[in-house]
Amino acid sequence: MVSIHHSRNVAETPAFSELEWARKIAAATGWRGEFIVLPKDRTPKDLQHPGNSAQHWEADSTRIRRELDYCEPVSIEEGIRRTIEWERANPPGDFNPHPFDYAAEDAAIITH
Questions:
Q1: Claim: this prediction has a pTM higher than 0.90
Q2: What single string gives the DSSP state of each residue in 68-96?
Q3: 10 occurs within a structural domain
Q4: Is residue 105 part of a domain?
Q5: 1 lies in a domain?
Q6: How far apart are CA 100 and CA 62, in angstroms?
Q7: Domain span at residue 106?
Q8: What gap in Å lies between CA 47 and CA 101, rounded to an integer?
Q9: Which of 19, 27, 32, 43 is deepest in the core (most CB within 10 A)?
Q10: pLDDT tens across 58-98, in order?
């Protein structure tokens, strides 16, 4: 089938929030910590990102799934497992933890 005159979105269904992704990754790695979501005014500056984090963009992949029978080649869980495996086998060589302000992060969550 030729795809002319139409655009098609390749997107995950369902679309997960950043927190939902983090929880899935945590579960896959066996991490049992707690995620603490802070309001922007209490979030340390080095963790703030530009943009509107209240906005949630979700692409609709109905057309590509219906017209071209698209489906993910692996499950979300398998994709996460493979990604974790690859990341563990290929750590960044130039990682520098010093830009992180762990004291500010600790202070922000103490008042949580």
A1: no
A2: H----SS-HHHHHHHHHHHHHHS--TT--
A3: no
A4: yes
A5: no
A6: 41
A7: 18-110
A8: 9
A9: 43
A10: 888 999 999 999 999 999 999 999 999 999 999 988 888 77
As for how many domains the chain has, the answer is: 1
The single-letter code of the amino acid at 55 is Q
Axis crossing angle, helix 76-89 with helix 18-29, rounded to the nearest 10: 70
The two tokens of residue 49 are 């990102």
| pLDDT score for 47 | 84
Q: What is the DSSP string of the chain?
A: ----S-------SSPPPHHHHHHHHHHHHT---------GGGS-GGG--SS-TT-------HHHHHHH----SS-HHHHHHHHHHHHHHS--TT---TTS-HHHHHHHHHT-
Write the single-letter amino acid at 94. D
Q: Rounded to whole angstroms, how far apart are CA atoms 58 and 81?
A: 23
Residue 101 lies in a domain: yes
Q: Is pLDDT above 70 for 10?
A: yes
